Amino acid sequence: YLVVEFQNNVDSSLKLVEYVPEAWMIGLTQCLWPSVSKSKLESLRTRASTPEETWERHPVVVLSRCSDELCARRRLSRYIKDGEIESTDLDKRRRRSKTKRFIEEGNRQRKKRVESSSDNEPDSEENSPKRANLNSGLRDPPSFPCISGSTFASPSVLASASAPASASASAPVSASASVSASASVSASASTPCTLTHELSKERVPTSFSTLREEIEASEVYSQLDSSQNSEPVNTPVGSQRCTSRCSEVRMELSSFERRVLRELATIRTIVDGVARQLTETLTPRLAAEDLPFSIPVNGDAGIDQLNAWLQKKENLVKLAQQLSRLGGRTSREATRQLLRRLFDPDALAKFTFKGTKDKRRFEESAVHSLVQLALKNSNLNVTEAQVNSDIKHVLLHALDPTRKHKAKENE
């Protein structure tokens, strides 16, 4: 959108300032203006409608350039009130263009020095691969990828402006009417800077469920983290302009973005653990009097008693529901916690998965069905073969806690 001043050929002292969409401009000196009612004019400006052949053409002078209609309204109000507008985007563009030309000139001179030194000293440090990579990084200015859905503050995204002063029905809306118009205009899509500002203003969620929902929403970013490259995206010319170099660059996540994704994954893991503990606390547990034994069991008598008690399907289902809340980030970790909750190390060491002459066979025991059912009820997506593999690993390392304890005592 552009804030423009209409040039009145009849009375030069009469200044009419309005804001118009960029699509209504013909270069930077003329503007097309519709002969419509006030409400229709507001609708056309908000939607940045394409000009029609019946619209009038007026000479104008550009005063300011804005990124959205709300910004254009504010600058128009400031101009009507104070008679001037702060440093415009056009001036900032000129300063940036001068700086860019200076940098490009320096890069060209640096490139010439590198090429001349490479001809004279082929084995010098200047021609080393490390130095060459550094020079290439300095020569090429950084190019940013075109990200779908985001609109950066560019010359093509201008602020709306309404316009000319003629005695006919096409006369522009008065300044007070323009300022008092509703400001509920859809702003342009968030840029990286505005996104940071919006995040800083977000309130902290007051409920645990809201926090978990927001953390789960970060799963889409973990999918972005797993993708190495992304296809370049074509965007409308009117909303975004990219150089040919920018459109060819594939989007890659920076180190900072990858670090943010790792932090979000860590936060989500912590929240899942807290949710699991909270659910376990609020869910009624199996009463102690319902168990004819204490867990973890120890000795052959305790193992036989547990297997006999699990022969009833009702007991098996109740205990499996309780053990499914023990948690674990992986299937192996959940299996280890579950078996160590049921057996002490010495009792667990009496089992092997297939069984031997001296040890019990875990595969045909009721505890095996209990473990399979408990992991099936958990939030882990595991298969029966994977659970069997984890059980074998845990049984093989059943005495590890005892060995570690003895090692600490010997120290």
Question: How would you summarize the topology of this molecule?
Answer:
Blueprint: E1 2-6, E2 16-20, E3 25-26, E4 30-33, H1 38-47, E5 56-65, H2 69-82, H3 89-120, H4 129-139, H5 175-180, H6 192-201, H7 208-216, H8 219-226, H9 244-248, H10 255-282, H11 299-309, H12 313-323, H13 331-342, H14 345-348, E6 351-352, E7 360-361, H15 366-377, H16 384-396, H17 400-410
Parallel strand pairs: 6-7
Antiparallel strand pairs: 1-2, 1-5, 3-4, 4-5
Helix pairs in contact: 7-10, 8-10, 12-15, 13-16
Describe the protein's architecture and organization.
It is a single chain. Helices cover 50% and strands 7% of the residues. The protein is an alpha+beta fold. It folds into 3 domains: 202 residues, no CATH class; 75 residues; 123 residues, no CATH class. The chain has a 5-stranded antiparallel β-sheet with strand order 2-1-5-4-3. A two-stranded parallel sheet has the order 6-7. Helix 8 packs across helix 10, helix 12 crosses helix 15 and helix 13 packs across helix 16. This is DUF4806 domain-containing protein.
State the end-to-end distance.
Answer: 76 Å
What Rg is obtained from the alpha carbons, in whole angstroms?
Answer: 36 Å
SSE arrangement, N to C? EEEEHEHHHHHHHHHHHHHEEHHH
Number of DSSP E strands: 7
Strand order of the largest sheet: 2-1-5-4-3
Given as residue ranges, the uncertain stretches (5+ residues, pLDDT < 50) are 122-209, 220-250
Mean pLDDT across every amino acid position: 69
Structural class: alpha+beta
Percent range of helical residues: 40-55%
Total individual domains: 3
The biggest beta sheet, please? 5 strands, antiparallel
Overall geometric form: elongated
The total count of helices amounts to: 17
**Strand composition percent:** 5-15%
